[in-house]
Design brief:
Radius of gyration: 23 Å
Strand content: 5-15%
CATH class of the largest domain: Mainly Alpha
Bound molecules: ligand G3I, ligand 9MR, zinc ion
Number of helices: 16
Number of strands: 16
CATH architecture of the largest domain: Alpha/alpha barrel
Helix content: 25-40%
Structural class: alpha+beta
Shape: globular
Mean pLDDT: 98
Strand order of the largest sheet: 2-9-8-4-5
Low-confidence stretches: none
Length: 537
């Protein structure tokens, strides 16, 4: 098998494929003429620990002419088709962003924007408070989390943060409409889409600033359930410290980003961010969230919440420059035992570090600023070193093929891109592109992990609408969780036991632990694709 990015490459960027077999030479064939336009030899072999593969590499970086091509080995084996073009990943970036529209809850998805994936509004009923069954509150709106219809505050926060950071750094990648109802409103579609989630998130905040951890039915509905047919009672699970802190962080982000477009909304976001932050200061030892009795939907448990408080402090500092928040983040940054670098859904300290570094040196605590920058660059160097060792030139270690490994892949690519942003060392961002090439097919399984893209696209995600809608092709632009060495669902266990970590994936709707989709696996992929588009202009 020849492993290649099944979308393609930008003209000026490095281009190589990987082959499981040796060959005397290879050619790049122009699909328009069926003529070879480039000939080269393969280097290698190289052992890839995560997949157990021995791989040979064919580099064709000097081929820059836009067009559609395939690789042909002297053995006769040919690759999937691919494209060389300056905006080659733009349509994927757009689709992975539009996937959030397809995740919308509480509104009709009209055929004009949703095509065959149109469906009626869902989950319109008020939600009952778990802690007070006599009280119900409006609950509609926002995005379904994933393959299920739950809505979870901490998960939403990572998704919103990634998208707002992508817009903050690469606005030109979002300057065109992607075909949502708000297209043409004067606000970039990314911001309109995120606004849909922010409006719902604000329904999760209590008057005292505390934020509900999630809004879900008591149990997951059957897989073959369209959203509008999921009629179980909606329950606001109790508030949590991590939900409150991450809510505060993203509302502070929104206060900055939306100010030029809707100053009143931005001001409201800041007010709500501060209200939740104040709640944090009087609930520092609040017990971590666990599913309450009778609720079995996603838990998003997290026993470490200093990182969430650090993130909230840093975003409020970046937005307001007020000493209260600067003092808070400086105090929290000095606490040992949590990551200041991670961009996960549970470990969010990296977002706080990014917020502080993006705030600039003026007015900063110089020592802290330099320490955070040095730590960020040191981690980028570690990630880059892993890529050099890896047969597929990415940074996933064998032990990182866990539930949501494609999120880890994209998070580490985000880290590299941000390191380039902070230092101007382009080697980091160029490495990030290798992560995008992996996502779209240059990986041991030759699998594009995104629905609708590549010759071998994701076809059977654990995604209730895609299973229940009667349409063969899944909703487009969905990023699969990817290989998970821990085989944490029966289908993965049944079909992938004994496989190396990078092969522990099955494109089957029952495999929720290797093949679900979530908004916070799409969001870092949007960030990375937006960088790729911006760097290829
Ligand atoms: O990181 C550790 C690793 O160090 C360890 O070696 C390994 C084996 O124990 O576990 C790894 O942690 C895993 C963690 O995800 C990584 O984030 C846990 O095993 C794994 O159970 C955990 O899975 C989470 C899953 O819910 C089950 O709780 C996923 O992160 C999380 O994305 C997923 O979220 C679900 C929601 O609950 C419901 N909606 C769908 C969504 C996606 O599947
Ligand atoms: O569909 C659920 C998915 O969103 C969760 O991530 C996953 C793990 O919590 O659980 C899925 O629901 C399955 C349940 O855990 C076991 N019975 C089958 C359900 C549908 O696959
Ligand atoms: Zn819904």
């Amino acid at each position: 098998m020849i492993h290649i990015d099944q979308i393609g490459y930008a003209p000026s960027k490095p281009k190589f494929f990987l082959s499981a077999k040796e060959a005397d030479h290879f050619t790049v064939v122009d699909l328009a003429t069926d003529q070879p336009v480039y000939t080269g030899t393969l280097s290698g072999p190289k052992e890839d620990v995560a997949s157990g593969d021995t791989v040979y590499r064919g580099d064709f970086s000097s081929l820059r002419d836009p067009g559609s091509y395939k690789i042909k080995l002297s053995s006769g084996e040919t690759s999937s088709p691919f494209t060389i073009a300056s905006d080659v990943h733009q349509s994927a970036a757009d689709a992975m962003l539009k996937a959030f529209y397809f995740q919308r809850c509480g509104c009709d998805l009209e055929p004009e924007h949703a095509g065959p994936y149109a469906h009626k509004a869902c989950h319109l009923s008020d939600g009952v408070l778990y802690d007070d069954p006599t009280t119900t509150l409006p609950s509609a709106g926002g995005w379904h989390d994933a393959g299920d219809y739950g809505k979870y505050t901490v998960a939403a926060a990572k998704a919103v943060a990634d998208l707002l950071l992508a817009y903050d750094l690469f606005p030109a990648s979002f300057a065109h409409p992607i075909g949502i109802p708000e297209s043409g409103s004067g606000m970039p579609d990314l911001l309109s889409e995120v606004r849909y989630e922010l409006d719902w998130l604000q329904r999760m905040q209590q008057r005292d600033g505390a934020v509900f951890h999630k809004l879900t039915t008591r149990h997951f509905p059957p897989l073959n359930t369209m959203p509008e047919d999921d009629l179980g009672e909606l329950v606001f699970s109790p508030v949590s410290y991590t939900a409150t802190a991450t809510f505060s962080a993203v509302m502070a982000m929104a206060a900055r980003i939306y100010e030029p477009f809707d100053a009143a909304f931005a001001a409201a976001c800041l007010k709500l961010a501060k209200l939740s932050f104040d709640w944090l200061t009087t609930h520092e030892s609040y017990p971590s969230f666990t599913n309450p009795v009778g609720i079995s939907t996603g838990e998003y448990g997290d026993r470490q919440s200093i990182d969430e408080a650090f993130w909230a402090s840093a975003e409020l500092y970046r937005t307001t420059r007020e000493v209260t928040y600067h003092d808070a983040l400086r105090k929290l940054a000095s606490v040992k035992g949590f990551s200041l670098l991670s961009l996960g859904w549970a470990d969010v300290g990296g977002y706080g570090t990014v917020a502080y570094l993006l705030s600039g040196r003026a007015g900063a605590d110089d020592a802290l600023y330099e320490d955070l920058l040095a730590a960020w660059v040191q981690e980028a160097q570690r990630i880059e070193a892993c890529c050099q060792e890896d047969g597929y030139s990415v940074s996933l270690l064998p032990e990182q093929y866990i539930w949501g490994s494609m999120m880890v892949l994209m998070n580490q690519a985000m880290h590299l891109i941000l390191a380039d942003h902070f230092t101007g060392q382009e080697v980091f961002a160029t490495r990030a592109l290798d992560h995008l090439h992996y996502l779209f097919g240059r990986n041991p399984l030759g699998q594009s992990y995104v629905s609708g893209f590549g010759e071998r696209p994701l076809m059977h995600p654990h995604h209730r609408p895609s299973v229940a809608d009667g349409i063969d092709a899944p909703v487009p632009g969905l990023v699969s969780g990817g290989p998970n060495r821990n085989l944490q669902d029966p289908k993965a266990k049944e079909t992938r036991s004994g496989q190396p970590p990078a092969r522990c994936f099955i494109d089957h709707e029952d495999s929720y632990a290797t093949n679900e989709i979530t908004i916070y696996w799409n969001s870092p992929a949007v960030f990375v694709a937006a960088y790729a588009v911006s760097a290829s202009q």
